[in-house]
Amino acid sequence: MARRGQWRDAERRAATGTVATVTIYLVRHAKALRRSTWEDDDALRPLSDDGRWQADQLVGRLAALATGRIVSSPARRCVETLRPLATRLGRDVETDLRLFEDRGAAGAIALLEELPDGSVVSSHGDVIPSVVRALARGGLEMRGKPDWRKASVWALERTRGAWTAGEAWAPPRPEGSPAADD
């Protein structure tokens, strides 16, 4: 299914209240200041200017789809990735340690299974691939090519308790910028 089709399907489900399939949006945090130059606690490392731009752009992609909760790793860069979306929607960003770096997939998956349709979740570059690969081993069909870059979004579908499909959306990029790996 194409990304635009995915958005329209989710928007229709949100508008009509008919949710046979639950879609959770799993976002890798946007670009942050470099770890190598950050001297404080890594959990406090903020987004870079490019990362703040990416977070702002994610609002346009997710605002109409974000009908559930907004949940983030407690790391500042993850919270800041979802803050513009939460602000637009008049909601708070909840934090959950199960999404924190180096926590593995099991806790994050348990959280995803608790969330209602249209929830948006932000985590890290080690957690998200672990989650998606674990779900794929359990039967999730990965549609298209995986994308693990910063500010990428995974639309993960759950039907009757089973994870059925996942599709990665490329991160937002300014017009004319290179599509280099992050």
Rg value = 15 Å
Low confidence ranges: none
Counting DSSP E segments of at least 2 residues, the number of strands comes to 7
Strand order of the largest sheet: 3-2-4-1-6-7-5
Helicity, as a percent range: 25-40%
CATH architecture: 3-Layer(aba) Sandwich
Give the overall pLDDT as a whole number.
89
**Beta-strand percentage?**
15-25%
CATH topology: Rossmann fold
Give the quaternary arrangement of the chains.
single chain
* Dominant shape: globular
What is the CATH superfamily classification? Phosphoglycerate mutase-like
H-E order = HEHEHEHEHEEE
Topology diagram in text:
Elements: H1 3-16, E1 21-28, H2 49-62, E2 70-72, H3 76-89, E3 94-95, H4 105-114, E4 120-123, H5 127-137, E5 141-143, E6 153-159, E7 162-169
Parallel strand pairs: 1-4, 2-3, 2-4, 5-7
Antiparallel strand pairs: 1-6, 6-7
Helix pairs in contact: 2-3, 4-5
Can you walk through the features of this model?
Helices cover 35% and strands 19% of the residues. It has 182 residues and is of the alpha/beta class. The chain has a single domain, classed as Phosphoglycerate mutase-like (Rossmann fold, 3-Layer(aba) Sandwich), CATH 3.40.50. A hairpin with a 2-residue loop joins strand 6 (153-159) and strand 7.
